[in-house]
Amino acid sequence: MNRRRAPRRFSHSQRRDAPTGGEWRPRNQEQRRGPDKAWVRQEEGGERHEPQGKETAPRGTCQTMCPAHELQVREAQNCLHRFEILAGTETNRPPCGDPLRAVKEYSRPAAGKDATTPTDLRPPAVLLKTVCYLIDDIAASTNLHPWTEVYGFVFDRLRGVKQDMIIQRVAGSDCVLILERTVRFLVYASYRLCGEPLRLYDPRINDTHLQENLSWLLDCYKAGTEQHPNQEEFQALGLLYNLGLSRAARHIMELPEPLRSTPAISLALSINRAYLERNPVRLLRLAQRLNFLQSCALHRHLVTSRRDLLHVFSHGYSSRNCRFPLHRLAQLLFLDKSLTVQLCLSYGVEVTQDDQVVFSKTAFTEPEQGKLHCKRYHNIVAEKQRDLTVRSIIDGCA
């Protein structure tokens, strides 16, 4: 007796067109083919930033940073963050929430939960006010420590802001202002928290949300007709952060010529060209011309560039009798002598007692994973910060 075979079922991960994590993904087949859609974005749970269909988007009516109902529930469940507790009630059981400091938490979409209730949604003006509070009063505070906890609080609340924006399909100038501050915060955090333990800071999660917010912001620039004074800054930041990525470079080349030829974008293009040509000497030299936030965006590529420099020199100057001056190598790497010696030893490059470097293509080795700490070689970025405050950096005044 022949039995009908049950239809074969595929999991989401088995589908040929299933997107992989951590990358910009095309929204549909048309955009996959279209050359003008270089960067795309996708929010958790399948939410998209663009309008879907013709139904009317909900409009929030909550005029506080945290809806009253949520504040009551979190207060009763003792789920308030210490940054949200009313002064003087810290020892109460449970402590009281401060309506002026409490901020709506990010919550994942759940079955049966209505996320479109107007009283739980904050309108664009309140969302912008919330972001300004998170940056100016929390992230930029000199009294709140440690900064890993500050980052965790601000990061979660910014996700809540983004969620409200998506549900209401916020667009226009308020959307741009919110996204610009969010991108600056995430770029700065990627530098400041580099090397922190994963339980305190996960660079991959930060990168995922930075790419999503940046992609949304660049789409806002493209879709709108109004002038955006900070567009040059963020177009350059996007390329510097995604150095060597073909889609990022293609996006820049599709910009109008007057914008593409501005100083910040021209410099970013030159650095990207040096990176693609594996010319680390030129890249590191050009990096000196970047401002602090641009250097924060570039910093994750500095280890690779210095590694390439030592690798190229290990082949070009590989000779038993050849010696390269340590002080000259330190100048090319933009490091002091002690850090240059440490970096050389990490890659198996010999440094003699009389400060001479002995390159050998057979001796060059890759360091063990986790042994080379990026944060130790942040001097190119640290020197540019000087007396800049967190507030001036994220508000774009640096």
From TrEMBL:
- Can you tell me which residues the record assigns to a coiled coil? none
Quote the InterPro entries the UniProt record gives.
SAC3/GANP/THP3, SAC3/GANP/THP3_conserved
Bias (Basic and acidic residues) ranges: 14-57
GO BP terms = centrosome duplication; spindle assembly
- Give any Gene Ontology cellular component: centrosome
Q: Where is this region: Disordered?
A: 1-61
Q: List the protein's name.
A: SAC3/GANP/THP3 conserved domain-containing protein
Q: Where is the composition biased (Basic residues)?
A: 1-13
SAC3/GANP/THP3 conserved domain span: 65-352
Q: Which domain of life is it from?
A: Eukaryota
